[in-house]
Structures are given as C-alpha cells and as structure tokens.
C-alpha cells in the first residue's frame, strides 16, 4: 500500500510540473489523489463507454474509473453533448412540433440557459470566433439529422432512457438516445456526431446497440432492430438484432469484467500505446510516455 501511495505521489509531482500554470487542473488532481490515494475500489457498474475504454487501454480505464482522475471532455465531445440535448428536447415534443423552426428555438434556449454556463465548455477557453465555429458545427449536425429523417414521422417511445441491469457479478448502466416503434417492432436509435467508422472498425460501433438490446431483453423488452444516425455525414446504418448479437454482448460484459477484476487484484492495468494516445488526457502521466522522455 505504501509503495502504491508513493507511486501516486510521484505521478502527481509529474503532473504539477507539466501542468505549470494550470492551477485549476492541478488542484483537481491533488483533491482526487488525496481522496483515493489510500484505497481503490472497483467501479460500481460498467457501461459501453467504460468497457470501450478498457478495451482500448486498460491503464486509461484505471486512471478514469479506479483512480478517478478527472479527464475533462474535449471540444468534439462537448459538441456531441450539445447536439444530443437539442435532439432530446425536440423529440419530447408532439409530432407536429418537431420542426426546424422549433429546433432553432430549442438550440438557442439550450445555449443561453445552460450550455454557455457549462464548466467544461468554459474550460475550452474559446474566443468569439471559435465559439461561433463551435455552434455552427453543432448546427450542421442538427441539419444533418433533418436530412436523414423527418422527426414528425418517428413514433417515440422514450428518449435518453436510463437502463441498469445486472449481468452476473456486475451491473451495467446505459442511457439510450431513443427508443421508437415501427410496425409493432421496437428499435434502438443512436445519434453520432463523429465520423462513420471504417468498415474494419464497424464491429466496435455496433457493440453499443447490441449491448442495449441485451440489457433491454433482461427487462422484457425485445429489440428487433438498431439504427445509428451519423449526423454530419447524413448516413444511417441499420440492421436486425439477432440472438447471436445479444449473446455476444453478454459475453463481452462477462469477459471485460473478468479481465478488469484480474487486473485490479494483480495491481497491473497495462498500457496500450496507439495513435489514440495523442487525444488522451492522461498521456502526460502515463508510464508508456513518461518513461520514454
């Protein structure tokens, strides 16, 4: 335990030196190191995003979910957050009210009453021209959504539906962008503001709707189909949900949780260097990069 404490303290010193004048970030790290330095616990639940984090880099998972070191969202993620909030508000309207004029009003109200005061957005430090570019990129996604479908034709069952179920020894938590009905079938729909994945990475993109289908099945809701709406490219990917998809999602949860608990017990979350490291908020304290300097 003492060795682990010293290791954490050394990480903190490295971050203080690297962060320089970013005293707010350093203060956050000091707080989290003080609170979590003497005891580490497994997370109370998994999610698709946390499993994807572990799959891409176990060390990043440890920093985020075990050590609980904050990693503020970047510009692209915050644009996604803003767009999702606008579409959530839009789809809670009755069908006739889901118009482009109404979504303009929603976007303006969301921006003025909430988003412009969001601490993560403020932390980006955008000047006026950068803030305009931020809003334009978000609005391009909204227009992309309207190019994919007419929201007035969607039979909405739920938006931002919170789902938590247990798979064996671990709970899984998810927030589903939208559940809709079509021809007596229930469909999971997910909005994406990022790029359409290369065919080689398609399985990773589909892991999320497969997981949601497996979770909802445990709540006696059968999902027959998924839709992933890539707003910027005005592209829709859709297909049927099969029994194999659901079983593979369940197996993914069991395998990932088993690997996490083993790494936790061994105190050995491995680094996994890749091109993704350039966008990782923990790169400056990661042993894969600190040791190479």
What is the string of SSEs from the N terminus onward? HHEHHHHHHEEEHEEHH
* CATH architectural type of the domain at 153-251: Alpha-Beta Complex
Helix proportion: 40-55%
- Named CATH topology of the domain at 153-251: Lambda Exonuclease, Chain A
Task: Write up this protein.
Among the domains are: 1-39; 153-251, Lambda Exonuclease, Chain A. It is built from eleven helices and six strands. It has helices at residues 2-19, 23-36, 48-56, 58-66, 75-91, 100-113, 119-123, 128-148, 202-218, 243-266, 287-290; strands at 45-46, 155-167, 170-182, 185-192, 225-230, 235-240. Helix 9 links the parallel strand 4 (185-192) and strand 5 (225-230). The longest helix has 24 residues, at 243-266. It starts with a helix and ends with a helix. Residues 17-21 have low confidence and may be disordered.
Keywords:
single chain, 293 residues, alpha/beta, Lambda Exonuclease, Chain A, six-stranded mixed beta sheet, 52% helix, 16% strand, globular
Write the layout of secondary structure elements.
Blueprint: H1 2-19, H2 23-36, E1 45-46, H3 48-56, H4 58-66, H5 75-91, H6 100-113, H7 119-123, H8 128-148, E2 155-167, E3 170-182, E4 185-192, H9 202-218, E5 225-230, E6 235-240, H10 243-266, H11 287-290
Parallel strand pairs: 1-3, 4-5
Antiparallel strand pairs: 2-3, 3-4, 5-6
